[in-house]
Amino acid sequence: MKRIDFPIPARTNLLIVAAQLCLLPSLLWAAGQAQQWWALLLLAIGFGIAMNSAYAMLHEAEHNLLHPNRLVNQAAGVCLALFFPSSYHLLRQGHIGHHIRNRSDDDAFDLYFEDENRFWKYLQLYGTLTGMFWALIAAANVVLVFRPSIIAPRYSAFNRPTAAFLESLNPRFGRLIQAEALAAILLQAAMIHFWQIPILHYLAVMFGFGLSWSSMQYAHHYATVRDVRRGAMNLKTFAWLDLAMLNHNWHLNHHMHPSIPWIYLPHLAQSPEARGSLAAAYLRVWRGPQFSTERVENRHAGKIVN
């Protein structure tokens, strides 16, 4: 299957990026104007949907599928990541690393093994379900700017997935990640200051994204086959939400064909396949990590993401 058979919808993508970069700051500005709790709740839901859509487009950039011009592709990804808020190149290395580690012992958050701390694995998975994964990434901006040396494998030896992620980071992106983290902090601080957004309003709206994004991070992988490509599920929700998320829920198709743009994912199934419910898959994750004796080594252990 050649990329030329599935051209990147560059113009469509740029129009979507432009709309997202207008909508996201508008919602944050509105957070400073909200007077009622229900208005703030609606803004949090709206920002959650809008930023999940922006993350889906950022995800296209991570795979060099947002635009055929590499500079335009990376620039769009960097701008979208500022509203996460995080460093685009850090998010990209984490995601590409996920593709090469998927369902191995280095990336199986839904399993714990005899030599692992069961409590820690429960804390990790339930933390993801309650938004703490996003909060940790957002808070890491400060660490990346002021003490980047602490983001090192030697400090995470107690946690195999985190150590595997840190070992895969390419040192040549270190300064760039630091600059992007600083830019994210400055942009968020500027919006809060100049638009006079009450800090609790800001946090409530941002967490509308953080909770929804973080809680869905493992819904497409929980209890799937221990295979790097097939270890994912195609899931469904409301048609309009599937579209807003740029077919992200066709997750098995994406893992099978990571070089194919989002617009073609629904058409890649080899045979008509029933898609499970996203809501049901999310609820299954609350069962927590399961004990396993099946070990699956990461064939790309030690590989640096480029």
Overview of this structure, please?
The chain has 306 residues and is mostly helical. The chain is 55% helix and 3% strand. The chain is built from 12 helices and 4 strands, in the order H-H-H-H-E-H-H-H-H-H-E-H-H-E-H-E. The strands form 2 sheets. A two-stranded parallel ribbon has the order 1-4. Strands 2-3 form a two-stranded parallel ribbon.
In short:
The protein has helices at 10-33, 37-62, 70-81, 88-101, 118-129, 132-146, 160-167, 174-194, 199-215, 239-244, 251-256, 278-285, and strands at residues 111-112, 235-236, 276-277, 290-291. The strands form two sheets. The chain has a two-stranded parallel ribbon with strand order 1-4. The protein is an all-alpha fold.
SSE blueprint and pairings:
Elements: H1 10-33, H2 37-62, H3 70-81, H4 88-101, E1 111-112, H5 118-129, H6 132-146, H7 160-167, H8 174-194, H9 199-215, E2 235-236, H10 239-244, H11 251-256, E3 276-277, H12 278-285, E4 290-291
Parallel strand pairs: 1-4, 2-3
Helix pairs in contact: 1-2, 1-9, 2-3, 2-4, 2-9, 6-8, 6-9
